[in-house]
C-alpha cells in the first residue's frame, strides 16, 4: 500500500492495474477514516458552519464527477482503484500540508485578535479552497495515470481523446 509516494503509485498503476487484494487496504483505510470523520462531534452554530457543510457535499459530488472525467469519462478505465489509491496518497500529503499551513494561520489569527469560537467567512473560504485544491491535485494525478496507460497496447487513452500531458 502506498501512503506517501505518488510517483511510485502512478508508475505501478501505469504498468498494471491493482489486483483486488492490492485495492483492499485503500478501501479499508477509506472506510475507517470516513467512519471516524462521520462520528466526530460537530456543532453547527452559525451560517458559515451550515454553508460549509452544504459546500462540502457539493464539492465532494462535483469533485468526484470531475475526477471521473479526468480519468477519461466513459472510456476511462480502473476509475475506482485510481480514485481510492491516488486519492488516499494525495489526501495524506494534503492533510500534512494543511496542518503545516493551519498552525501558523491560527497563530496569526490569534495574534490579530481575529480567532473566534465559531466559523468565520475567512475560515469558510480557506477550508472550501483547500477542499477544491485537494480534488484538483487528485484529478491531476488520475489524469496523468489515464494519459500514460495504454488502452489497446498502441495508443494511450489521452491521445485517443486528444488530451495532453501539460500542467502540474
Order of SSEs:
HHHHHH
Q: Roughly how much helix do the residues carry, as a percent range?
A: over 70%
Oligomer: single chain
Task: Give the percentage of residues in beta strands.
Answer: under 5%
Classify the secondary structure makeup into a structural class.
mainly alpha
Work out the number of β strands: 0
Structure description:
The chain is mostly helical and 168 residues long. It has six helices and no strands. Helix 2 runs parallel beside helix 4 (79-112). It is elongated, with a radius of gyration of 18 Å. Residues 152-168 have low confidence and may be disordered.
Brief account:
The protein has 168 residues and is an all-alpha fold.
Keywords, separated by commas or semicolons:
single chain; 168 residues; 6 helices; elongated
Task: Give the SSE layout.
Elements: H1 6-15, H2 20-39, H3 47-70, H4 79-112, H5 121-148, H6 157-161
Amino acid at each position: 500500500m502506498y501512503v506517501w509516494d505518488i510517483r511510485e503509485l502512478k508508475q505501478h498503476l501505469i504498468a498494471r492495474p491493482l489486483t483486488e487484494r492490492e485495492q483492499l487496504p485503500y478501501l479499508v483505510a477509506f472506510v475507517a477514516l470516513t467512519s471516524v470523520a462521520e462520528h466526530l462531534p460537530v456543532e453547527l452554530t452559525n451560517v458559515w458552519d451550515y454553508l460549509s457543510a452544504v459546500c462540502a457535499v457539493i464539492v465532494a459530488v462535483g469533485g468526484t464527477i470531475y475526477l471521473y472525467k479526468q480519468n477519461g469519462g466513459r472510456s476511462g478505465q480502473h476509475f475506482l482503484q485510481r480514485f481510492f489509491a491516488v486519492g488516499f496518497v494525495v489526501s495524506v500529503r494534503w492533510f500534512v500540508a494543511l496542518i503545516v499551513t493551519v498552525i501558523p494561520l491560527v497563530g496569526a489569527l490569534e495574534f490579530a485578535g481575529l480567532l473566534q469560537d465559531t466559523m468565520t467567512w475567512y475560515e469558510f473560504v480557506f477550508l472550501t479552497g483547500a477542499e477544491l485544491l485537494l480534488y484538483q491535485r487528485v484529478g491531476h494525478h488520475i489524469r496523468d495515470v489515464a494519459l500514460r496507460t495504454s488502452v489497446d497496447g498502441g495508443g494511450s487513452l489521452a491521445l485517443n481523446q486528444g488530451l495532453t500531458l501539460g500542467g502540474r
